[in-house]
């Protein structure tokens, strides 16, 4: 069955438009409740609901709660809570499932619903399909004596703070470090600063005044300029940027230099190699080629998968590996958590800095990322780029010119009739010219 509503990261859209409407979310809660109740082997199922700081979260939380109640499912309300916190708490409390109301790094006008299974992992595709099927059935209500109840989860933040701290080595601390933490006015605003402070750091928090409308606005991983300025202005040792639901991470060193998920993954791999073997690492089609080359030089296997942490996770499990990431900041350390976690990933980088005695820049070792230039070309519905002989020949010519100094990636957009053509090269001008060459061929036929 083709899924209509579930994407790679749950259900997402603009608030007030299908599927992010009160009516639909009520139906989604009911459908998910019935499916998850069917998987419960004993007792009444309980589902944890967390959310980020968007103003629409109140409305969607109420709709979800009502849907679960009508399905005979109890709920625990955690309030504003990072996505990875919901994954952890669901597993720790032995609940049937967890739900996060968030659109991650998107602006406040958007929102979404994503689910975690009882073991803290994203729902299997088969369960999402079952929920989609249930959405097509009438919304009913169990008898009054079977209605679900809702209650608040006391000290959800405190529980998660302790979990984050437990992933940092006992023999290390952050005393003497001055850290700027940008919470993106999102779900970690009341959590992230405490984690780093309780480990001994002097913390300067920014992006920690959410008002329902300023999530990800000129702050966080999508707009790190303010973090860079704050690190320089406060003569800080490090800067940490999270996104609205705190599952993404970017970092800034003492000079104000920004490091993305690809580079931070390399730091983590080097640190692991100092303490033992690393079976392999998973990146995506967009992972910078400079990192792939650097990992090869370290003797570490590297595998690419489709864009999205869901696919990284699947590939890590397939190979039995622990580390994976994408440049946007999703970093997975499966020996620390079941899902990508910005705070925990930052702690692993800080541990690498502490263990080595080197700065973040020194740990990168002079790696210079390849230039990536992407051009989006709108195409006609009947255009099949994979059978376009001219495009094939042009691509071969470009790849021959790049040799081992770059690569070509052509892929269709999953949301619009656009062909994305990306060229990566050690030289910026070469990347731009090569991408333009490919784009000109498609523009001529679409």
UniProtKB/TrEMBL annotation:
Q: Which residues carry this modification: Phosphoserine?
A: 104
Keyword annotations from UniProtKB, A to Z:
Isomerase, Magnesium, Metal-binding, Phosphoprotein
Cofactor names: Mg(2+)
Q: How is the cofactor bound?
A: Binds 1 Mg(2+) ion per subunit.
Q: Which residues form the Alpha-D-phosphohexomutase C-terminal domain?
A: 374-431
The post-translation modification note in this UniProt entry reads: Activated by phosphorylation.
According to its UniProt record, this protein's enzyme class is: isomerase
Query: Gene3D superfamilies under this entry?
Result: Alpha-D-Glucose-1,6-Bisphosphate, subunit A, domain 3, Alpha-D-phosphohexomutase, C-terminal domain
The source's superkingdom equals Bacteria
**What EC numbers are recorded for this enzyme?**
5.4.2.10
Which residues are the active-site ones? 104
One Pfam family this sequence matches: PGM_PMM_IV
Q: What does this protein do?
A: Catalyzes the conversion of glucosamine-6-phosphate to glucosamine-1-phosphate.
* UniProt xrefs under HAMAP family: GlmM_B
Q: Which family does it belong to?
A: Belongs to the phosphohexose mutase family.
Query: Which NCBIfam families does the UniProt entry name for this protein?
Result: glmM (TIGR01455), PRK10887.1 (NF008139)
Q: What is the name attached to this protein's record?
A: Phosphoglucosamine mutase
Phylogenetic placement of the source organism: Bacteria, Pseudomonadati, Pseudomonadota, Betaproteobacteria, Burkholderiales
